[in-house]
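Methods: example folding runs. The two proteins below were folded one after another, and each record is reproduced exactly as written to the output file, sequence line first and structure-token line second.
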Amino acid sequence: MKNLLILLLLLSTVLGANAQDLPATKAGYYSWIYLKNSSRAMKGVIVEANDSSVQFIDKSFLTRGKVMASYKLQVIPVSTIQTIKYRKRNSPGKGALLGAVGGALAGAILGYASGDDRCEPGTWCIFVYSAEEKATMGAVLGILPGLGIGTILGSRRETIHINGDQSTYNLSRDELKKYSLTGN
């Protein structure tokens, strides 16, 4: 029993020390790092941009943007990095929401601006709508295009091309630091 308590105490100390290495455990930005010798991107969070390397945590160690206590830090040398892309966390969702609202507003304005329909005597009319009804239909029909456009715009990623060049990386390092967990 005494050995078990000592083991649990040591384990909690090790896990706690690992979690304390990160000043901010909630990711503000997601990153995609493309290496020179691979066509697949490494997806996750940049912890820190050092002089000659990037410290990175894979997305498998993230839960809802938070870094798990048992994360594995990867150190990626600049000479192996082709491209780094990043995007603000939750930006596709926020873009979709703003796009849907914008599409509904635009559809409602266009529908209302078209005015009331009139059916002249002696003519045959199937659909006759008031300006308010057209505004409602325009709002409903504007949601889907606005949602799609907002999602596409919100999913946009900023790109930094490094091509394994240290001098190019040095020029971009301050920008990369803004999008890392440490922020400096």
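Second run, written to the same file directly after the first:
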Amino acid sequence: MFARQLLVLSAAAVAVYGQLTITSPSSSIWWIESEQGNLAWTCNTAPSTEQTWTVMVANPSVTLLTDTQALIAEQPNYDCSVVFTPQLTPGSGYTILFVNPLNSTDVWATSQAFEVKPAGSTYAVTSSASGASGSGSSTPTAGGAAASQSSKAENVRAGTAGVVAAVMGGLWALL
């Protein structure tokens, strides 16, 4: 009986661990027109088959984006985040897609819908799970670099916390 429960617990931990998630931008972390933006993901939880992908952007509004557009041709997973300057028209409803580089209809991850604010807007202030202050700056270069570094650390902590939570939840259920 215990072996079967341990097997179920292991499968749950793998399910939590084997998921690629785009963490930034999001509904609360936006980009600003013609300024550096942070693109971050849970690199420590990506399945081994998804180690390099094409980064695409989509928007249902044809006035903002007439078709899905490639932003980065091949992005390696190990970076955990990348700071770059996307050229997007201000508006809402944008999503980032990580797709198979050989088949763009094979979508591996989709971000939350986010907004691109007009040039001169201020950045979102984010915080980590521990409450420490994260990105957020009116200086795009400094804010982008800070966001990149804090996102890498937050992604590692979030992925580890998810695995630990799954294991602890399974152990708790066994008791």
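Comment on the second run: Residues 1-17, 129-174 have pLDDT under 50 and may be disordered.
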